[in-house]
Write a structure and sequence with these properties.
It contains eight helices and 15 strands. The protein has 313 residues and is α/β, with parallel strands linked by helices. A hairpin with a 7-residue loop joins strand 9 and strand 10. It binds flavin-adenine dinucleotide.
Amino acid sequence: MRVVVLGAGISGLFTALLLRERGDDVVVVSADATEATTSHLAAAIWFPTSAGPADKVAAWGSTTYDVLADEAARGVPGVVMRESLVVYRDEPGPQPWADAVGEVRSARPDELPAGYSHGLRFAVPLVEMPTYLPRLRQRYLDTGGHHLVRRVAALTDLLDLSPDVIVNCAGLAAGQLVGDSTTYPIRGQIVRVRNPGLTLSVRDEHHPAGRAYIHPRTDDCILGGTLDQGSWDTTVDDATTASIVARCTDLVPALADAEVIEALVGLRPGRPEVRLERDEQLVDGVPVVHNYGHGGSGITLGWGCAQDVLTLV
Ligand SMILES: Cc1cc2nc3c(=O)[nH]c(=O)nc-3n(C[C@H](O)[C@H](O)[C@H](O)COP(=O)(O)OP(=O)(O)OC[C@H]3O[C@@H](n4cnc5c(N)ncnc54)[C@H](O)[C@@H]3O)c2cc1C
């Protein structure tokens, strides 16, 4: 079959790779290079955030965890297993993501930052997207796939490519392209600092000053971050940058003197639930499979969603 995949972020590239590997004729179309996607900017740690529905997120997340963990074990560039600590001020209770992660243990008191009474320790895949995403695209091209850089105003603009099926992986833009008014941006501001030698990822979802997370990468650390639902503002707010650095330093004092490299803003593709379904009505004579609306979890769910797309295609 000839499949046109709209989008070259994590959703489009995982989907396109799997379609090529089973022998379909695939063209990826994207408005921009992969470096300009939300996917490229993401902190990209495995952790379900702002995505639904819960049962499918658990299944997609579990599949993706296993694939990325296997890639980390095989030394695929850009993927590592990251020791993690989530901290709480009260007893956390069961966590919906824990089943996918395998071994989760209570943190010892000496592992907790000052002011916290509870914590959970586990390991999850962390993907360094500036390394991983271009290689994923190359892996797809090496299988014989094609990539056209072209902005479309509607899915019908893809009909000149003679698709048997169109797969809609256009992220936040997907809703506007297909008249889906349930999509919305979830603005995320993050800060990149020089890594002062950290190897543990630390997260407090309920810090009084806002969500706080520290994800160490090879050369830098991603400090976050905001989840501003409904905001289309892509400009960096300096007060927010200062607040993110301050609350992350509360959790990890070693960040106090870390050099700030830059602050970044991205818009997550929000939707009450990920849209992963077949649509026969949208484009005359050509079925569309939607795969968008992954919120703060596109990397966490990406491989599992792509496998379901394959079945629908
Ligand atoms: C600050 C921040 C931190 C994040 N951290 C994490 C994290 O730790 N873990 C996690 O799992 N997720 C995280 N996310 C969320 C994750 O980045 C997204 O869920 C994911 O990138 C969505 O991928 P996508 O491929 O669906 O969309 P995108 O990456 O946005 O790609 C969309 C593609 O569609 C194309 N496109 C759009 N419109 C058109 C058009 N009109 N014509 C042609 N092409 C078009 C674009 O060019 C692009 O190629 C984070 C996001 C942000 C902003």
